[in-house]
């Protein structure tokens, strides 16, 4: 093709821009747009919203199991002593770090293992005006539930994580519910047998 | 920078899930999977292009477009400029990134070179999509000789 023989244009790369540099995108735009493209692709591949939700959750789980290492490396946290502490860290450190938002945390029961993260808007959906027609039970951000679940599992905390309310569906807030599951006693000793 | 990390994790998961090799991976099967990732990248690239300020959409010369891609777009998406740009002055350009961000976590050197195209498909599509919005039909392919140190992009640029 003869491309390698031609003079390089590297000097054009280092030349000062004469006009103002156009703002291409904020950092977060790429993440949000990519996620949107992923959801759109899965809606094409799967007829039922439940299948799309499950697939997003599964992908999120895979991400969460690896993201937790990145998170622990970036944040020097002391050991947590309660589910409440863990939930506050997810909201105030992790969400802030990766998504730039801080949900508020509420505890839903007296045994203090059920919590909710409350957000003004559904993360990753900044460019979504409404759910596609006929997809009203699509949980757009199922990925996030999977990420939280996967990350917690890697630190030996089993939890159910689901969307309880979703602004995209017309609810007043977006609410993610985290229910920490008590580990059965026998699991602790399985490895000894 | 942590939100770019989340994009990288998402991208890796997308490659793992949407490029699932079937039991008998033939050339046909492989092509289909790459196309899914490329078309997602195309969609993102188009939208990135549409969000540009109006004055940037009136690029007159191919070289302005290339300069934009090498500097502004690459910096916005991968936080660094392209390392070099070559052309045959006949519509084909080779852009080289010596440490492509999405390949860095994989390996260094010749190991996994055959796996690398999976990790380039989305970005090829993204470049195509942005070029499309700027008014240029293009064919973007990527080529890796050794991770992540050397990587070339070639395409033919024709105005609509």
From TrEMBL, chain A:
Keyword Amino-acid biosynthesis part of the UniProt annotation: no
Keywords: Endoplasmic reticulum, ER-Golgi transport, Golgi apparatus, Lipoprotein, Palmitate, Transport
Lineage of source species: Eukaryota, Metazoa, Chordata, Craniata, Vertebrata
Chief site of localization: endoplasmic reticulum
GO biological process: Golgi vesicle transport
Name listed for the protein in its UniProt record: Trafficking protein particle complex subunit
PANTHER family reported for this sequence: TRAFFICKING PROTEIN PARTICLE COMPLEX SUBUNIT 3 (PTHR13048)
Coiled-coil annotated residue ranges, if any: none
Gene3D superfamilies in the record: Trafficking protein particle complex subunit 3 (3.30.1380.20)
One GO cellular component, as annotated: TRAPP complex
Pfam family membership, one: TRAPP
Family: Belongs to the TRAPP small subunits family. BET3 subfamily.
Self-association and partners: Homodimer. Component of the multisubunit TRAPP (transport protein particle) complex, which includes at least TRAPPC2, TRAPPC2L, TRAPPC3, TRAPPC3L, TRAPPC4, TRAPPC5, TRAPPC8, TRAPPC9, TRAPPC10, TRAPPC11 and TRAPPC12.
Subcellular localization(s) per the UniProt record: Endoplasmic reticulum; Golgi apparatus, cis-Golgi network
Record InterPro entries: Bet3, NO_sig/Golgi_transp_ligand-bd, TRAPP_component
Function field: May play a role in vesicular transport from endoplasmic reticulum to Golgi.
TrEMBL record, chain B:
Stored Gene3D superfamilies: Trafficking protein particle complex subunit 3 (3.30.1380.20)
Keywords, in A-Z order: Endoplasmic reticulum, ER-Golgi transport, Golgi apparatus, Phosphoprotein, Transport
GO cellular component, one term: trans-Golgi network
Entry's Gene Ontology BP terms: endoplasmic reticulum to Golgi vesicle-mediated transport
Subcellular location: Endoplasmic reticulum; Golgi apparatus, cis-Golgi network
Predominant location: endoplasmic reticulum
Family note: Belongs to the TRAPP small subunits family. BET3 subfamily.
Function: May play a role in vesicular transport during the biogenesis of melanosomes.
Subunit structure: Part of the multisubunit transport protein particle (TRAPP) complex. Heterodimer with TRAPPC3. The heterodimer TRAPPC3-TRAPPC6A interacts with TRAPPC2L. Interacts with TRAPPC2L.
Name by which UniProt lists this protein: Trafficking protein particle complex subunit 6A
């Amino acid at each position: 093709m003869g491309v390698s023989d031609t003079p390089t244009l590297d000097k054009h790369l280092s030349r000062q821009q004469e006009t103002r540099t156009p703002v291409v995108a904020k950092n977060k735009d790429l993440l949000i747009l990519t996620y949107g493209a992923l959801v759109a692709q899965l809606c094409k591949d799967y007829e039922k919203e439940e299948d799309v939700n499950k697939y997003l959750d599964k992908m999120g789980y895979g991400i969460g199991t690896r993201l937790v290492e990145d998170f622990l490396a970036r944040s020097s946290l002391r050991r947590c002593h309660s589910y409440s502490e863990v939930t506050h860290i997810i909201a105030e450190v992790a969400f802030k770090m990766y998504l730039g938002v801080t949900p508020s945390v509420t505890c839903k029961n007296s045994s203090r293992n059920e919590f909710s993260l409350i957000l003004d808007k559904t993360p990753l959906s900044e460019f979504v005006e409404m759910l596609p027609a006929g997809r009203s039970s699509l949980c757009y951000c199922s990925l996030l539930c999977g990420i939280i679940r996967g990350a917690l599992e890697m630190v030996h905390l089993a939890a159910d994580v689901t969307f309880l309310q979703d602004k995209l569906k017309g609810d007043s807030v977006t609410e993610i519910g985290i229910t920490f599951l008590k580990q059965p006693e026998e699991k602790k000793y399985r490895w000894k047998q | 920078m942590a939100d770019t990390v989340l994009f990288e994790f998402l991208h890796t998961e997308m490659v793992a899930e949407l490029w699932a090799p079937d039991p008998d991976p033939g050339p046909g099967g492989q092509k289909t999977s790459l196309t899914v990732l490329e078309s997602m990248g195309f969609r993102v690239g188009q939208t990135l292009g549409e969000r540009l300020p109006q004055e940037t959409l009136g690029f007159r010369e191919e070289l302005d477009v290339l300069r934009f891609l090498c500097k502004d777009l690459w910096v916005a998406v991968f936080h660094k400029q392209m390392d070099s740009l070559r052309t045959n002055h006949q519509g084909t350009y080779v852009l080289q990134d010596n440490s492509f961000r999405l390949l860095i976590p994989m390996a260094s050197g010749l190991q996994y070179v055959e796996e690398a195209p999976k990790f380039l498909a989305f970005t090829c599509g993204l470049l195509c999509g942005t070029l499309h919005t700027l008014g240029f039909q293009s064919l973007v392919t990527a080529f890796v000789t050794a991770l992540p140190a050397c990587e070339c992009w070639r395409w033919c640029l024709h105005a609509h």
